[in-house]
Write a structure and sequence with these properties.
The protein has 381 residues and is of the alpha+beta class. The chain has eleven helices and eleven strands. It has helices spanning 3-44, 89-102, 118-126, 144-148, 164-167, 170-178, 191-201, 219-224, 257-268, 275-281, 359-368, and strands spanning 49-56, 59-67, 83-84, 229-231, 237-239, 254-255, 295-296, 299-304, 307-316, 321-328, 333-339. The chain is globular and about 80 Å long.
Length: 381
C-alpha cells in the first residue's frame, strides 16, 4: 500500500470510529432519556421498587433499578433483585410442556378430566359467579392443549378467554402423570418446578431464579426477593405476605430482569428452543375452525402498528407484584419490567391482547420501536 492509499485508509478508520462513537452516544442518550421518563412514570404510579431490562440482537442492551425492595427503604432495587413474576410464569409452563411433549412424556390431547379431582374443580368453578366461569361447560372434552392455550370457555376450542384457575391445575396433571400424585404437588419442589429447572433455568444459566419457593438450593434468591406492597391512590403502602411456596402452573417463578433477559436470549438463539418447538411456541394457537387465537403456550400475540408483538404480563394483587415481558420477534428485541406493587397493571381484557394500553410499553415503543420500524403492509401472526 502506498502512502496516499495508507492515508485514505487511516481517514476511513477515523470516520468509521467517529460514526460508531456518535451512534453509541445517541444510544446512551436515548437510554438516559428513557430511564428518566420511566422513573417519572414509576413515581406517578407510586411503585415502591422496579427493575427493567432491554434486550437487542441477543444481547443485554441496558438495565436499571429504581426505588426500594423493602419497607424501610434500605435495600435499593437493582437489575439483580429477584421478584415474584406472577403470571409471566405461564411462559415457562408453556415452554416446559412443549419440551415434555417433544420427549414423549405428555400428550396435549389428553382429557384434563383424567387428572384426579379435576372434575370437582371444574364443577365448583362453573357454579361460581367469577369471570373465569363464563361459558364453562365441564361436560365438554377439555384437553391439556385447551388449558395451555386458554380455550376452555365458550365452548371448548372455539374462543379465547384467559383462565388462570384452569392453568393452575397443570402442576397436578404433571404430578399425576409423572410425579408422586396430585396430593404431593404442594409443600415441595414439585415435578413441574423440577422440569422448569431442567428445560429452562439450568441451560439458560438463570442462577438468580427459582421455579418454586420450595427450591432449597437457592436460599439467597428467596431471601433477596423484593417485598410486595399494596399501595393506595395516595401512595400509602402496606407490605403484604409472601406468595405461596409451590408452583401450581399459573404462577410460581421468582426471577430478575437480568435472568429474564438470559431467558429471552436463550429463546431467540435456540438454546432452549428446538426447531420443532419453535414452530409452536413462536406463533399463536388456532381455534377449532383454524382461525387464529391471540394466545398460545404461555404467550399473547398481537399486531400493533404493523409490528408483531409477543408478550405476557403478571398481576398479583394479593401479594403485591406486577410484571411485563414484551418481545418483538422481528426486531429481535425485548422489554422486561418487574415491580413490587400492582403499578404495572393496565386491566387487560380477559378475551383480547391489548398491551399497547400499558403506559410503560407505550414509552418503550415510542423510544425504541414504533417510528423506526420498516413500513409493512400487513403484520402476520
Amino acid at each position: 500500500m502506498n502512502i496516499i492509499g495508507g492515508l485514505k485508509y487511516v481517514v476511513f478508520l477515523i470516520l468509521l470510529l467517529g460514526l460508531r462513537t456518535q451512534a453509541m452516544e445517541k444510544t446512551n442518550n436515548d437510554f438516559v432519556q428513557f430511564s428518566d421518563q420511566l422513573e417519572q412514570l414509576r413515581k406517578a404510579k407510586f411503585i415502591p421498587g422496579m427493575s427493567v431490562a432491554v434486550v437487542k440482537n441477543n444481547q443485554l442492551a441496558w438495565s436499571n433499578g429504581y426505588g426500594f425492595a423493602d419497607n424501610n427503604k434500605e435495600i435499593a432495587v437493582t437489575p439483580n433483585t429477584p421478584f415474584w413474576i406472577a403470571s409471566v410464569t405461564k411462559t415457562f409452563v408453556g415452554l416446559t410442556y412443549l419440551h415434555l411433549q417433544q420427549d414423549g412424556k405428555v400428550q396435549f390431547d389428553e382429557l384434563a378430566a383424567k387428572t384426579p379431582e379435576f372434575d370437582g374443580l371444574c364443577d365448583w368453578l362453573a357454579g361460581t359467579s367469577i369471570p373465569f366461569a363464563k361459558g364453562l361447560e365441564c361436560s365438554e372434552p377439555i384437553t391439556i392443549r385447551h388449558i395451555l392455550n386458554h380455550q376452555v370457555n365458550e365452548p371448548v376450542g372455539s374462543s379465547f378467554m384467559y383462565n388462570p384457575i384452569m392453568y393452575s391445575r397443570l402442576s397436578r396433571h404433571l404430578e399425576h402423570r409423572l410425579g408422586e400424585g396430585v396430593r404431593q404437588v404442594e409443600g415441595r419442589h414439585n415435578y413441574l418446578a423440577q422440569s422448569i429447572d431442567k428445560y429452562i433455568l439450568d441451560p439458560a444459566g438463570m442462577k438468580r431464579s427459582m421455579a418454586s419457593m420450595w427450591d432449597r438450593t437457592k436460599p439467597l434468591v428467596y431471601f433477596d426477593m423484593a417485598d410486595g406492597f399494596k399501595v393506595d391512590d395516595k401512595g400509602y403502602k402496606t407490605r403484604l405476605r409472601r406468595p405461596e411456596k409451590h408452583i401450581a402452573g399459573g404462577a410460581g417463578v421468582v426471577s430478575t430482569v437480568l435472568d429474564l433477559a438470559k431467558y429471552d436470549i436463550a429463546i431467540s438463539s435456540g438454546e432452549i428452543v428446538s426447531a420443532e418447538i419453535a414452530t409452536q411456541l413462536l406463533k399463536p394457537a388456532k381455534f377449532n375452525d383454524n382461525s387464529t387465537s391471540p394466545y398460545g403456550f404461555g404467550w399473547y400475540f398481537q399486531c400493533y402498528k404493523g409490528e408483531k408483538l409477543m408478550w405476557h404480563s403478571g398481576w398479583d394483587p394479593d401479594n403485591g407484584y406486577s410484571s411485563i415481558h414484551l418481545r418483538l420477534p422481528e426486531q429481535n428485541m425485548a422489554f422486561i419490567l418487574l415491580a413490587n406493587s400492582e403499578g404495572l397493571w393496565w386491566n387487560n381484557p380477559l378475551t383480547k391482547a391489548r398491551i399497547e394500553s400499558s403506559e410503560f410499553v407505550q414509552l418503550f415503543l415510542k423510544h425504541f420501536a414504533v417510528g423506526e420500524l420498516p413500513s409493512k403492509a400487513k403484520c402476520e401472526l
